[in-house]
Amino acid sequence: MNLYNSKQRWKITLLVIAIVMVGASLYVSHSIVKGVSQRERDKAKQWADAIKKKVELVQLTNNTFQEVRNLERQKIAVWIEATKEISKETPLDVIPDYTFPFKIINENKDIPVILLDDANNLSSYINLDFDTSIFRSKFPIATKKEITKHFEDSLVHLALSWKKKNLFFSVEVYKGLLMTYYYDDSKGLKKLENDRDALITAFNQELIANKSLIPVLLIDSVSHHIIGTNFDKKKLSVSKIKNTIKELKKVNTPIVIDFNDGNKNILFFDESPELKQLKYFPYIQFSIIGLFVLIGYIIFSTFRKAEQNQVWAGMAKETAHQLGTPLSSLMAWVQLLETYQIDPMVAEEMSKDVERLSKVTDRFSKIGSIPNLEDENITLTVKNVLDYLQRRFSDKVELDFHSKGTITAKHNGPLMEWVIENICKNAVDAMSGKGKLTVTMHQTPEWVHIDIQDTGKGISPKQIKTVFQPGFTTKTRGWGLGLTLVKRIIKEYHKGKVYVLDSQINIGTTFRISLPL
């Protein structure tokens, strides 16, 4: 009967089931995380393609706008020629036809033009979005002449700003008189550019600068200038930008956006916060569940152990109580036999057995209560129990006892005798009633060691770990509680240690009892 082995098998089975469940759960969680991560990478690639399409669209739009500007420049050139035609001197007897030049001049409804002489004095202007009323609101107490001066100065300043963009034509109207026509993009072209810029800004905000999307960082491959990002500014500081890029490379392979015109951008992207949390969630979940199970196991084990202790103590005390009545009767019978003329040795041996039963009863009565430990001669305690066992073992069992002098240690005599007796009887059973039993005592500065060595069948390495567990036995009959009681007495009552010092199959086993000095 081996209750402990059965319990171990159940523990191993439940552990295997738990490991399989945990493994399956982790596999499912990992598959989900892997799928979400792949979708985020695909989304990043889609963003890269969208950015590339956006740049291509911007380039196409810019080319279109440049063509429109060229057409407007040609239009202004024609308009200036028409103006010059009207301004030419004609003979008095010739009536010029200005129908076509005026038609050209009147068709310019949206291109702003400012005409300055070679001294940068305002000559004329058309198609401007403001007039003197703006300056009237700014300078309410100024005179009309002052308002006009402010207005003309602002037009000169505006014309010179157009000159920086190379938007002007210089024309010699008369000999020695040079006039310059300054112009800007038409109102329609400016409106289209503003609409384009608004769309690009909205695109950037939605595609890159949106913090609800995965973290992305778009940089120029040559200048390493940041084009767009939704990262925290702290991570993009001069001192941290290199580390940020290095960390992003470890997470995901960056995407190179090649615009096929010599320009390349690099898109770095990180995992979303939700994906990172999802990765660690199974481990956090199992940690919490494991901690809960561990606490529950400790609590229930404590209750179970306390209940077992109560059962053991109750059984032991009840056994001691049941032995008390026949023991008293046996003592009386021994005293009666001593009055008769019989062999004195019979009565003497019976008295020893009765005394032994009294000690056994005393041992059982002390289970469940804290025994008194006295600083006594432990060598004598061990020798007395071995002398008693020697006369009751088979003649085929050789019992040797060795001790280096007298050793004194705190112990409880009856309980220590029980320990020695229990181990010795198990040793004799392991030798099948035939062999050598050697008990050796020695001490160190901190311990008293009692080694009990037999020449029995030995204990396998696998069984060594379980010999002191309840229910372990190698016999066909027995409850497997003897060594459990031994460990309880030594460890809990005497604060010592008991363990298998050495064991070899078919050679023998050595148990060691260590008591603190």
Task: Characterize the structure shown.
The model has no long low-confidence stretch (mean pLDDT 78). Among the domains are: 208-271, no CATH class; 276-369; 373-516, Heat Shock Protein 90, CATH 3.30.565. The chain is rod-shaped, with a radius of gyration of 54 Å. The longest helix has 85 residues, at 3-87. A hairpin with a 3-residue loop joins strand 12 (435-443) and strand 13 (447-453). Helix content is 56%, strand content 18%. Helix 7 runs antiparallel to helix 8 (344-366). The protein is α+β, with helices and mostly antiparallel strands and 517 residues long. It has helices spanning 3-87, 99-107, 133-138, 144-164, 187-207, 241-251, 273-339, 344-366, 378-390, 413-430, 461-464, 482-493, and strands spanning 113-117, 122-126, 168-174, 177-183, 216-220, 226-229, 255-258, 264-269, 374-377, 397-403, 408-411, 435-443, 447-453, 497-504, 508-516. The protein has a five-stranded mixed sheet. Strands 2-1-4-3 form a four-stranded antiparallel sheet, with helices on both faces.
What is the strand arrangement across the widest sheet? 10-12-13-15-14
Q: How many beta-strand elements?
A: 15
Summarize the amount of helix as a percent range.
55-70%
Low-confidence stretches: none
Using the 3D structure, state the CATH architecture of the domain at 373-516. Answer: 2-Layer Sandwich
The portion of residues forming beta strands comes to 15-25%
Class from helix and strand fractions: alpha+beta
Q: What Rg is obtained from the alpha carbons, in whole angstroms?
A: 54 Å
The run of helices and strands is: HHEEHHEEHEEHEEHHEHEEHEEHHEE
Query: What's the CATH C level of the domain at 373-516?
Result: Alpha Beta
CATH topology of the domain at 373-516: Heat Shock Protein 90
What shape does the CA trace take? rod-shaped
> How far is the first residue's CA from the last residue's CA?
38 Å
User: What is the count of DSSP helices, taking H or I runs of 4+ residues?
Assistant: 12
Largest sheet data: 5 strands, mixed
CATH-assigned homologous superfamily of the domain at 373-516: Histidine kinase-like ATPase, C-terminal domain
The average pLDDT is 78
